[in-house]
From TrEMBL:
Protein name per the record: Uncharacterized protein
Organism: Streptomyces amritsarensis
InterPro entries in the cross-refs: NAD(P)-bd_dom_sf, Zn-ADH-like_protein
Superkingdom classification of source: Bacteria
């Protein structure tokens, strides 16, 4: 989980610089890194759109 969290921070805070009101699309949002990205984007006040490959993963989201 540490690597997933660090990846999310690197992507959303350092590269994308997500701010409140932004809209973020997270591919494979039900996976470890995707879930970390979703949570971090929500923490920053962004609206999140996520994709997943199965119905079970979509329910998880």
């Amino acid at each position: 989980m540490l690597i997933s969290g660090l990846t999310a921070i690197a992507c959303l805070e350092r590269q994308a610089r997500v701010h409140p009101g932004d809209r973020v699309l997270v591919q494979a949002a039900a996976g470890a890194t995707g879930t970390a990205c979703v949570q971090l984007a929500l923490h920053h006040g962004a609206t999140v759109f996520g994709t997943a490959s199965t119905e079970a993963q979509l329910e998880h989201l």
